[in-house]
Design a protein that fits this description.
The chain has 360 residues and is α+β, with helices and mostly antiparallel strands. It has helices spanning 10-14, 19-38, 49-98, 108-117, 129-135, 138-141, 146-152, 262-286, 290-295, 297-340; strands at 155-164, 167-175, 185-194, 199-205, 218-223, 235-240. A hairpin with a 4-residue loop joins strand 3 and strand 4 (199-205). The model is unreliable at 1-26 and 334-360 (pLDDT under 50).
C-alpha cells in the first residue's frame, strides 16, 4: 500500500496555487477554448453540405481535445508548483553552504588542521560559485568577460519563479554588498504571449544603480586635445560595451510597428531570441544543476549531446559527398556515352544505379 504523500491527488496539487493564480489560469484556458470553438473559417463556406457536416463533427472532436488539454495545463501548473516547493529546502541548504552561513557537518576538524598548516586561509563557503557555474556553460560564457568577473564574484544566489499576470517568469540575482552597484537584487522578467509555445512578448530588466566610474556596460574614452591648443582639456566620451550586465537592459520592441523596417525587425527578433535563450538557460540549467556546472560535470553531458548531434551531421555530410561523387560519375558517363553513341540508362560504369536522395 502506497504512502499518502505518494498519492496523486489533483485537488491537493491545485491547492498549491493561490486562489488568484488558479482562477487566472482557468479563465485564460477557458478563453482559449471559447476562441477556438467560436472561430468559423471561410473554408467551411466553400465545402459541400456533406463534407461540411463531417468537418463540424471533427471540430467538435477538436473542442473535446481542447477541454482535456486545458485540464492538462491546469494539472501541470499545479504539479510544477508542488515540486517547486519540494526544491526550495534544497536550494536553501545550497545557499547557506555556498555563502558560508552554515558549515558542513564533520568539516570543522579538518578545517582546524588546515588552518594550522595555513593560518592565512579564511575562505568561507564556496568562493566564486555562481560565477564559475555560469562560465562553464557555453551560452553564458560568451556573455561574461573579464571586466564582469569582479562583480559576479559577489553573486550569492539566483532564483526563479513563474508569474501569471501576465504569463511568464522572473529571474532574481542576489548580490552581496559590492563596490560596483547599489542594488542587492537584480531582476529579469519575461512576459510571454503563449508560454506553452513559447512566444516572447517582451523582457524587463532592473535598472542598475552603478557607483561612479564602476559601470561595466559602458567604457569611458579619453581624447587628447589637438596639438598646439592652449588650456585644452581631455575630452571624455562614454561608449556602450559588451558585458553580462547588458542582460538587465534587454532589447525593446517599439510601440509603433510602422517605425520598424524589415532588416531592423529581423535584427530585433534575433536579439530577443538570444536574450530569451540566456534567460531560459539560467532558469532550466544553471539554477537546478548549479553544482554540476561548477564542477564541470554538466559540461561533459553537454559535450556528449553535441558530439551526438555532430556525428549525425557528419554522417549526413558524408552521404551528401557520396551523392556528389556519384553525380560527377554520372556526368562522366553521359559524356562517354555521347562520344560512343550509346544511350544512358541510369547505371554507372560499374553497372550500379546511383543512390536515391534521402527524403527528409
Amino acid at each position: 500500500m502506497s504512502n499518502d504523500k505518494d498519492n496523486f491527488n489533483m485537488e491537493d496539487l491545485a491547492a498549491t496555487l493561490n486562489y488568484e493564480d488558479h482562477a487566472g489560469l482557468l479563465n485564460a484556458l477557458k478563453d482559449k477554448i471559447q476562441n477556438l470553438s467560436g472561430h468559423h473559417s471561410d473554408v467551411l463556406e466553400n465545402l459541400s453540405p456533406v463534407v461540411r457536416k463531417r468537418v463540424e463533427v471533427l471540430r467538435d472532436i477538436q473542442n473535446q481535445h481542447n477541454e482535456i488539454e486545458a485540464k492538462f495545463f491546469e494539472e501541470r501548473a499545479a504539479l510544477e508548483a508542488k515540486y517547486q516547493k519540494l526544491y526550495q529546502p534544497l536550494y536553501t541548504k545550497r545557499y547557506e553552504i555556498v555563502n558560508g552561513i552554515v558549515e558542513v557537518e564533520g568539516i570543522s576538524v579538518e578545517a582546524e588542521k588546515d588552518q594550522e598548516e595555513d593560518k592565512a586561509s579564511d575562505e568561507k563557503g564556496v568562493p566564486d560559485f555562481w560565477l564559475n557555474a555560469m562560465k562553464n556553460n557555453e551560452v553564458l560564457s560568451e556573455e561574461i568577460n573579464e571586466r564582469d568577473e569582479g562583480a559576479l564574484k559577489y553573486l550569492k544566489d539566483i532564483k526563479w519563479c513563474r508569474i501569471n499576470d501576465p504569463k511568464g517568469f522572473k529571474l532574481e540575482f542576489f548580490f552581496d554588498t559590492n563596490p560596483y552597484f547599489k542594488n542587492s537584487v537584480l531582476t529579469k522578467i519575461y512576459h510571454m504571449i503563449d508560454e506553452d509555445e513559447p512566444i516572447l512578448e517582451k523582457a524587463i530588466g532592473t535598472e542598475i544603480e552603478w557607483y561612479p566610474g564602476k559601470c561595466l556596460t559602458q567604457k569611458i574614452l579619453k581624447k587628447k586635445p589637438k596639438t598646439g591648443s592652449k588650456n585644452a582639456k581631455h575630452v571624455t566620451k562614454t561608449e556602450d560595451c559588451e558585458s553580462f550586465f547588458n542582460f538587465f537592459k534587454p532589447p525593446q520592441v517599439p510601440d509603433d510597428d510602422e517605425d520598424i523596417d524589415e532588416d531592423t525587425a529581423e535584427e530585433l527578433q534575433n536579439l530577443m531570441e538570444q536574450d530569451y535563450d540566456i534567460g531560459s538557460t539560467i532558469r532550466d540549467k544553471i539554477i537546478p544543476h548549479a553544482v554540476s556546472w561548477f564542477t564541470g560535470e554538466s559540461i561533459q553531458d553537454d559535450e556528449i549531446e553535441l558530439d551526438g548531434e555532430e556525428g549525425e551531421d557528419d554522417i549526413d555530410e558524408e552521404e551528401e559527398d557520396d551523392e556528389d561523387e556519384d553525380e560527377d560519375e554520372d556526368e562522366d558517363d553521359k559524356k562517354t556515352n555521347k562520344k560512343g553513341g550509346k544511350s544512358h540508362t541510369g547505371e554507372n560504369q560499374h553497372g550500379e544505379r546511383p543512390p536515391e536522395c534521402k527524403q527528409q
